[in-house]
Amino acid sequence: MKTISTSKSHGGIQGVYAHASEACACDMTFAVFVPPQAKDGPVPVLWYLSGLTCTHANVMDKGEYRRLAAELGLMIVCPDTSPRGEGIADEKDNWQFGSGAGFYVDATEAPFAKNYRMYSYVTEELPALIAQNFPADMSRQAITGHSMGGHGALTIALKHPERFKSCSAFAPIAQPSTAGWSKPALEKYLGTDEAAWRAYDTTLLIEDGKRFPEFLVDQGSADGFLQEGLRPWLLDDACKKAGIRLILRMQDGYDHSYNFISTVMDDHLRWHAQRLG
Questions:
Q1: CA-CA 20 to 30 A from 156: which of 80, 111, 150, 164?
Q2: Is 21 a catalytic residue?
Q3: Mind listing the pLDDT tens digit for each residue in 92-127?
Q4: Is 223 noted as a catalytic residue in this protein?
Q5: Is 256 designated active site?
């Protein structure tokens, strides 16, 4: 692991790091905020999964999480959203696929299967690296994310309920297998058999019996992607049928940007801190 930068903030340390990833077969960059409480021992971990076109840096620069994370004693881990670099398959003119758009799946289709294994990266490889190199209490983990990352957070929590104490999301893609901006990506990464897509679709995972105790979801009412891409009412319906507690908060006038995320970030941090203990 290589340290790219570190900077003190609110008594803690915001760092950016890189390492050679086996899962993605390339170098990967990620950010970690270590709160001041880590001086006294391991601290709980909150994973933040970013959305389309983002890197580790978007939430680090615009998410406004450090002040309260330092107060609450939360380590914040921000992975990248896809493999990057020369020789990695990409569609440079398509912002909904390839670089910056890994969708937190393990691709099975050529030529993407070699590198686009973001599900394994964020659920196996990077957690092992964090546990080895940072003062993280891996018995206390939570997960959240925005848009594509909200989809990732929800699906990962549903498939690993024993690992995560809590899960929330900012404007998540509720049903990526039918949304216009995600269905083409799933087909390219996973093939044309839609049965394979179910493992990466929150509503269908719930339909297939996966469970998590509760979710907190914030969604802006003025989000330009609300009707065609995000559709939180599908998640609401799936959770009601399954008996999963969903706190779905429609935030009047807010869009899809980090202006929205930073506005409700404190609520999410407090939600997770309460459940992490």
A1: 111
A2: no
A3: 899 999 899 999 999 999 999 999 999 999 999 999
A4: yes
A5: yes
